[in-house]
Design a protein that fits this description.
alpha+beta; globular; three-stranded antiparallel sheet; four-stranded antiparallel sheet
Length: about 130
């Protein structure tokens, strides 16, 4: 009986952990991915379109210098996972984390290499 109870508690804890959603403020998941891809590619937000959205996987298209490149993005916890459409694996060299700053009403995107923060970008609702 103790094992069943402990298993049940562990299962409930895992469900609570997995189902916890990050605070996006007024931003949509598509906007978080748009900002993540724009910041990674060094382009303006307006050059990134949400091409296809089958939640939780979103396909973004970057138009820059007459070329178009597609990316996949998926939010997982406080991270934006990303990869080029032609790649089969998620990029792991640069970690992209996001959070919502309630007082400044900003979406903050940060790039990390291991524990070192490489860059930080801030977006407001009107930027989209």
């Amino acid at each position: 009986m103790k094992i069943v109870f402990k298993t049940l508690l562990l299962w409930l804890a895992c469900i609570g952990f997995v189902s916890a959603k990050p605070n996006l403020g007024g931003f949509k998941p598509e906007q978080v991915c748009q900002a993540a891809i724009a910041s990674l590619q060094g382009v303006d937000l307006k050059k990134v379109d949400n091409y296809r959205s089958d939640q939780p996987l979103m396909q973004m298209r970057v138009r820059h210098n007459g070329q178009s490149t597609s990316f996949y993005c998926q939010l997982e916890g406080d991270q934006a996972l990303w990869r080029r459409a032609q790649d089969s694996r998620w990029q792991t060299t640069t970690t992209v984390r996001f959070h919502y700053n309630n007082s400044g009403k900003q979406l903050i995107i940060k790039h990390y290499l291991a524990a070192a923060q490489l860059a930080e970008y801030r977006y407001r609702g009107e930027d989209f």
